Amino acid sequence: MDRLQSMRVFQQVVEEGGFAAAARKMGLATAVVSRLVSDLEHHLGVRLLQRTTRSLSLTQAGETYLERLRGILGEIEAAEAMVQDQDRDMSGTVRVLAPPVVAVHMLAQAVVGFQRAHPHVKVDVQVEDSPDPAVHEYDLAVLSGVANIDPGFIVRPLVFSQSVFCASPAYLAQYGEPAAPGDLAQHRLLRLRLPGVRPGPLQLLDPSHEDRVLELEVAPVLTANHTDTLLRATLEGGGISSQPIDLVAPLLKEGRLQRVLAPWITARISLRAAMPSRKFMPSRTRAFLDYLMEHARRTMEGLELDVPQP
């Protein structure tokens, strides 16, 4: 008896609701399907199915056996698919969801590097900023730590960072540098507007004192729901804004921006990669995830952050 085939036939009979339907699904004769299930019952020494002329139902033993069987057959199918996939050239499309700032400042660069190594893999990027993203429609999604993710999804941490105050040298030469948080009231503040969040006091954290919180009522001269808009205005000397330090690190090193009000920050930032929970992940998706995680690690190297790791 081919025990593995008998197991698969038994599962198919239950899922299709009958021997004839299972036979059509598997391309076998109905008599062969019936014999394989009977052989399995004989091998186990128990009846798995109650058969009548009008209905088919699982026995208690059949229910118990099928519950364990599904997991076993699923693992076998995943192992077979993984070996077959690894034996083929890396190709196909990876569909990725990401918010605008991530797409521009991390994902675009990572995709170019990844495709140099895997030129036959296409990447389809959907740029969208939503507190409740449709992760299940994509192979991989890069999301902020506050985005809602189904608990059954696979989640991998990518970045732990923080937002810092910065301004251009030209702005500081004209308006001076704030010495304390309260000085922001005399400065031109550029502020990010988050989707679904009502504007409120500006909240500051002091990492040098266990994230001591300070709230300030400061009227911004510019608000935007787009990080790059605020970054461009900051570079043009429009005022002081809070920016992710990993994003502005090259600009700080080049002297195009200057950090102010250190060690105060405005937020802890985390980015996660989320994927629908599947028994088998295509090798192209797995390879892209590995590359993205390594790219994020290299980006954060050399940044001196006081960022708690989860």
Automatic annotation (TrEMBL):
Pfam families in the cross-refs: HTH_1, LysR_substrate
Statement: the UniProt record of this protein carries the keyword Coiled coil: no
Keyword terms: DNA-binding, Transcription, Transcription regulation
Protein name in UniProt: LysR family transcriptional regulator
GO MF annotation terms: DNA binding; DNA-binding transcription factor activity
Biological classification of the source: Bacteria, Pseudomonadati, Pseudomonadota, Betaproteobacteria, Burkholderiales
HTH lysR-type domain boundaries: 1-59
Similarity comment text for this entry: Belongs to the LysR transcriptional regulatory family.
InterPro entries for the chain: LysR-type_TF_proteobact-type, LysR_HTH_N, LysR_subst-bd, WH-like_DNA-bd_sf, WH_DNA-bd_sf
Superkingdom of origin: Bacteria
